[in-house]
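Checklist before submission:
- one chain only
- standard amino acids only
- sequence pasted in full

Submission:
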Amino acid sequence: MKRLFSCVLIGMILLVVLSGCAQKVEKVRVATDATWPPFEYVNEETKEIEGFDIDLLNAVAEKAGIEIEFINVGFDPLLAGMAQCQYCAAISAITITEARQQEMLFSDPYFNAGQIVAVRIDNMDITGPDTLGGKIAGAQIGTTGSIEIQQMGDVTLKTYDDIGLAYQDLMNGQIDAVVADNPLALEYVGKNSDKLKAVGDVFTDESYGIAICKDNVDLQAKINAGLKAVKEEGLIEELTDKWLSNQ
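Returned file contents:
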């Protein structure tokens, strides 16, 4: 009887220990705007969110011992939601800026990018950001592209919830140019090379980071540790080859 009791007691102790271990896997709600290929987009066949950022954060989460739940949300409400800690974190080709750092924490940078101008293939007037005066330029709302256009002064900004709609309007002649991050711009130009072209050089220097709720410094530390580990393993270079090699 004592042996049976001992076995039951040991079993109960193991169950408690194992349950405690299971609870150590933290579930993190991560916002992303899946309209920004090749960093995040919805695969039309599988209906799953894919891209550079998705692969990266999944790898970081594995190293950090956290479980990811991606929430697909527009970029502007994504930023607003992060400022209010509606999401634990966000990854969506988010440029680290001083203004955003007032409202949310960021991981260490993981990718360098910049803004570039795209126009119709037959446009000879616009050769870069300095020649956008008097023109209508499109950008996704809340992005650094829209911020840069606003700072140009005499350029009319037209904003879009989905950057794909901006490029569609550009091809249809509804606007004169689109300003966006160069990896995304080159993705759209590459797929529509008979209709679009990129002009001028990349005219900003930006770093992408993973946004984190400003109250969660522990999560920031975990994500930074995971990010450091995957960087050391060469994952950034692997993902660049996988998602950006055609640009």
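Reviewer check: The longest helix spans residues 2-23.
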